[in-house]
Design goal:
Blueprint: E1 9-15, H1 20-30, E2 38-43, E3 62-66, H2 72-82, E4 87-90, E5 96-97, H3 101-111, E6 117-125, E7 131-135, H4 141-149, E8 161-163, H5 164-169, H6 181-189, E9 195-206, H7 220-233, H8 244-256, H9 260-274, H10 277-293, H11 300-310, H12 316-352
Parallel strand pairs: 1-2, 1-4, 2-3, 6-9
Antiparallel strand pairs: 4-8, 5-9, 6-7, 6-8
């Protein structure tokens, strides 16, 4: 790639750690099947790379941008402003990209010019490379926005590829929302962008104790921002639906609730009022908490009665959906977790080159 030819994709990879995980992450991008990409490693480590010897530092496609420890959000904006390609691909310094990730995403975008942000499915792994569980996200724009409105993962941030001009148009990442900067960006893009996710696992998402994960915004202003997108996605604020203020009040009460059964009941009530399946999807975490505590092993009818007492009388259809979630959906999730772990041990590591 010559200095005058713009790259096909600019990969923005911020990091505060210079270690073997970073070497592995950058190596997985260099090994991509898509030629002509640039890799922008934004060094936010405040000089920590001085003693680290990386084989890729002199690679022709790699540029190292100093950020002097100003934080993740600033590092992301630094990388986006320095990028030369029309498309920005995100990566984190401890994840691994499948060799075909960039090629598949760019091909999809060229075939679907109305789409501005495309992500992928992922597999959560430990630092040592052991499979934990699949990370599944919806593929359609409407379902993605439904998830985002609920504060859930609709796009896996380090697995996304996005249109650079559109991100700059909305002002990039917001500095006042550390930990939720990706959720905030997606919601600001929701009224002018189309989202999609490939139905393929093209990222190994490393989970470890020191990482910064997406946090659900907890104050009124941030929750209100989520529900501004509710009207755009058709969840609330349209004819026949409750006003967004009512949904906002329910969401605020959920954020204040300490008992997982209370949060479960509020999610069921939100589903009853809106019909948005994303609210039932969010209950999976609460059901998992109840199962750990031993409460959800009781008959599902007992759980539904407790939910009905705290919500405002779920309909028969809502109760049926909840029963399905409590039995079939959760059991299917556990089975898939076990299958993915088995598949990773038997063949997955080899296919990914790990």
């Amino acid at each position: 790639m010559s200095s005058t030819t713009p790259p096909a994709v600019s990969v923005v990879l911020p990091t505060r750690r210079w270690d073997r995980l970073l070497d592995r992450a950058v190596g997985s991008v260099i090994a991509q099947s898509l030629p002509g990409s640039e890799i922008l490693v934004v060094d936010d480590s405040d000089g920590a790379r001085a003693g680290h010897r990386s084989w890729w530092r002199a690679h022709r496609d790699v540029r190292i941008l100093p950020n002097d420890g100003r934080g993740l959000v600033d590092a992301l904006n630094t990388g986006i402003h320095a990028a030369r390609a029309e498309w920005i691909a995100r990566m984190d310094g401890d994840d691994v990209a499948h060799p075909d990730r960039l090629r598949r995403q760019l091909t999809y975008l060229h075939r679907n010019p109305a789409v501005d942000v495309v992500g992928t499915q992922a597999l959560a792994v430990t630092v040592c490379g052991e499979a934990l569980h699949p990370i599944d996200v919806p593929t359609s724009h409407h379902r993605i926005v439904e998830r985002l409105v609920c504060g859930e993962t609709g796009l896996i941030h380090p697995a996304t590829m996005m249109r650079r001009s559109l991100v700059l148009e909305v002002g990039g990442y917001a500095a006042d929302l550390p930990g939720a900067e990706d959720l905030d960006l997606w919601l600001r893009l929701a009224d002018r962008a189309r989202f999609a996710n490939l139905n393929r696992r093209l990222l190994l998402y490393t989970v470890h104790g020191g990482q910064v994960t997406q946090a659900t915004p907890g104050d009124g202003a941030r929750t209100a921002r989520r529900y501004a997108a509710a009207g755009l996605s058709g969840i609330g604020g349209r004819a026949g639906h409750p006003p967004i203020a009512m949904l906002l009040a329910l969401e605020e009460s959920r954020l204040d609730a300490e008992d997982p059964m209370d949060r479960l009941a509020i999610d069921v009530e939100l589903f009853r009022r809106t019909g948005a399946s994303a609210f039932l999807h969010r209950t999976r975490g609460e059901i998992g908490t109840l199962r750990v505590r031993g409460e959800a092993w009781r008959p599902d009818r007992w759980v539904r009665r407790r939910v009905a007492a705290r919500a405002e009388g779920p309909s028969v259809a809502t109760a049926a959906r909840l029963a399905t979630l409590l039995t079939v959906d959760y059991a299917w999730w556990v089975a898939r977790v076990r299958y993915n772990r088995w598949a990773w041990r038997t063949a997955g590591r080899h296919r990914w080159g790990c």
